[in-house]
Amino acid sequence: MTSISNPISFNEHMWVIEMRRSLNEEVEEDNEVPVNIFNVPKALMANKPDCYVPQEVALGPFHRLRPELYEMERYKLAAAKRTQKNLPEVNFESFVDQLTRHETRIRACYHRFLRCNGETLAWMMAIDACFLLDFLHVYAVKSGQVITKSSSKMMTHLVDYAGTKSAHNAILRDMVMVENQIPLYVLRKLLEFQFSALDEADDMLLLMLVGFGEDLCPFPMTYLSDQIHVEEQAHLLDFLYHLIVPPRLKETSEVEVVIEPENEDDEPNEKKERSSPESNYVQQLFLMIWDMLSALAQSPIRLLKLPLFSSPVKFIMKLPWENISNLPGFSIFYQNKNPKNGNSNSNSNSNITKSPLMEEISIPSVSELRNSGLRFLPTNGSISSITFDPKTATLYLPTVSLDVNTEVTLRNLVAYESSNASGPLIITRYTELMNGIIDTEEDAKILRERGIILNRLKSDEEVANLWNGMSKSIRLTKVPFLDKVIEDVNKYHSGIWKVKAGKFMKRYVFGSWRLLIFLATISILLLMILQSFCSVYSCPRTFQIPEDQ
After folding, report:
1. What's phi and psi for 287, nearest 5 deg?
2. pTM of the complete model
3. Which of 24, 142, 361, 387 is the most exposed place for a label (fewest CB within 10 A)?
4. What is the C-alpha to C-alpha distance for residues 223 and 466, in angstroms, rounded to an integer?
5. pLDDT score of 128
6. 428 and 245 in contact (C-beta within 8 Å)?
7. Which phi and psi angles does 377 have, rounded to 5°?
8. What is the dihedral of CA 403, 407, 410, 416, to 10 degrees?
């Protein structure tokens, strides 16, 4: 058998023949077919390879030669034999010959160069198409429009009309993998051989695809079947992608793609954005303390108020301590939580491989948002239904169903989107949003109780792990309606006084414990001196404080 994907066995003579033949052929058809079957980007493949590499069945040329997948070849052959029996007036080789004549169009779909001759490629496509249609036939039966159940007895332990068999789900996961696709054009051609007209073939294929989408789409299907044109879909994964992200949503979300810088120059800008609100927190906190102390009438408190709120002390508190803390000698009082010049190589390496800007968007978790008074409500739409109502402090999120197939489906949708989409990465941005708001099992539990997550996994912990494991992305993108929601949620959360006080404590108290120890020591010494002074002299008379009646 001719080598298909093994780069080691390279025949220079065959390569020259192939190049000469390709240049001499008509290439008009090639120009009309964009590349739509890609290799998974290495950054994603390295994160969790099992989600991108087929485990049961190889479809197409990329994983054809993997020995562990050979077992499924006999099931493919059984499906091809059944298809041959159902062809009314032509034999199976006629279908293969027609695919051979469209070899250029088939090759044009693949991003990788295919090291196999035209006849091998045509037979491969024909056999795989038979297997896929035999498997997808279950959805036509479930719809009620086809009475005959699946034919091949060999397929009974693989095909499950109830959708409960593990082998059935394993094959479904393989069918949505980026590198495990064949052109949908091939399936249309095969159905055209079985039906009298192309319209009938397209209707049957659409019936199967809709059932396939309902089985794997994690969101409620709001995209009506009459809005789906089979001839415009590249393959099964492309069809599933357009169920979630219809073309109209892509058009309204077209913006420039922004790559966030990952160097140290981002630090000053980030501090500049945070410095003004943080200084307001300090002023507001001292105003609150002043109001509380002003309401007290006890003489010891009045005694402390006089030096504490004197003009020199007020002047000291108004100083720009954030800038002063960067001066030599003062920086030791502040804890350096994000060292830029770490002494260990491990820290520097981790900063290179995992930048916070590229890993997770800045948004509070579900628990934090709920504690600040924000509510969560489910919607029956898809990603486009995500909105935030600041008047009622309600975040609307689409209902998402999570089962054993969801992680593989979402990961491959993200990989396909990053490879194929020229505009904003909508599904990628959604997964970043969910990764940002779900940090713990408690966050997943809250969304499950609100009806936003339909959990068909074993526990809420698995749900949290699923979203937290999907933080890897190829590039950042701006999706206007999602970014507006994130911005509004952050604005609402930052405006809560409890959050302001917490940020102040975290930044100026817990983050500067050395300074606090120093100030506490000085305060204790001053109080001891004051106590000694008052034991010798009469403090009320000295400071002219009236005696309590």
Report:
1. -65, -40
2. 0.73
3. 24
4. 26
5. 96
6. no
7. -135, 140
8. -140
